[in-house]
Amino acid sequence: MKSGTIIFYSDQVVPENERLDKRIFEISGKNRPRLAYIPSASDATRKYYKDKCEYYRKYGIEDILYFDLNKGYDPSKTDELLACDAIHLSGGDPFQFLGSIRKRNFGPVLKSYWENGGILLGISAGAIVLTPSINISHVFYQSRTDKHQAVGLVDFHFLPHWNLREGRIEDVQRFSQENRATVYACKDGDGMVIKDGKVELVGDLLKIENGIIKSQ
């Protein structure tokens, strides 16, 4: 069984993200890979989906599959989803996103896709739901669920938008220490590539392990 790739983005709105975007083409081996888009919440007007279509259009990527886990859920599209070269998991609300994944029992689907060579693109909340739990979000937001276990494709926690949260370093260290966890704090424009069991940091990420800041 070949393993796939996970690309974690803090965001996908600044030019520096092109460093991560280009890895999609390198890893897929295609000039125009087929992409799917899973929103963190139903996008009734398709506003955010259309924005993302415009984003990828600059690379010549057209016809992105919209796959809703919420109100517009259509399981008959699952085979088409799994045939895509990469699946984009959108930013938004990690509590709501995880709730939808759990409701549709979609964690095993994403895991199987990844284990069979697929590329997962996790943007902010879409990255958090692929980690062991969404508990890192509790450092900044009140929990709205008692079900925190996430998809668990990696053994560390991912903290996006670090450039907006650096003043909370002691809180993050406390979280890391209390949970005996490794946290990667990521600024907008930076990210991570996880492939073949190896972690590649793209940009200036902060690693906190058991409460201790580690030099990279």
Mean pLDDT: 93
Intertermini distance: 31 Å
Binned strand content: 15-25%
Helix-residue proportion: 25-40%
Provide the succession of SSEs.
Answer: EHEHEHEHHEHEHEEEEE
How many beta strands in the DSSP annotation?
Answer: 11
* Highest-level CATH class: Alpha Beta
CATH architecture: 3-Layer(aba) Sandwich
Low-pLDDT segments: none
Integer tally of domains: 1
CATH fold descriptor: Rossmann fold
SSE class: alpha/beta
Secondary-structure blueprint:
Layout: E1 5-9, H1 18-28, E2 35-38, H2 47-57, E3 65-66, H3 78-82, E4 86-89, H4 94-103, H5 107-115, E5 119-123, H6 125-128, E6 157-159, H7 169-178, E7 182-185, E8 191-195, E9 198-202, E10 206-209, E11 212-214
Parallel strand pairs: 1-5, 2-3, 2-4, 4-5, 6-7
Antiparallel strand pairs: 1-8, 7-10, 8-9, 10-11
Question: Keyphrases for this structure?
Answer:
216 residues, Rossmann fold, four-stranded mixed sheet, seven-stranded mixed sheet
Describe the structure.
The protein has 216 residues and is α/β, with parallel strands linked by helices. It has a single domain, classed as Class I glutamine amidotransferase (GATase) domain (Rossmann fold). Helix content is 28%, strand content 20%. It is built from 7 helices and 11 strands. A 7-stranded mixed sheet has the order 3-2-4-5-1-8-9, with helices on both faces. The protein has a 4-stranded mixed sheet with strand order 6-7-10-11, covered by helices on one side. A hairpin with a 2-residue loop joins strand 10 and strand 11. The chain starts with a strand and ends with a strand.
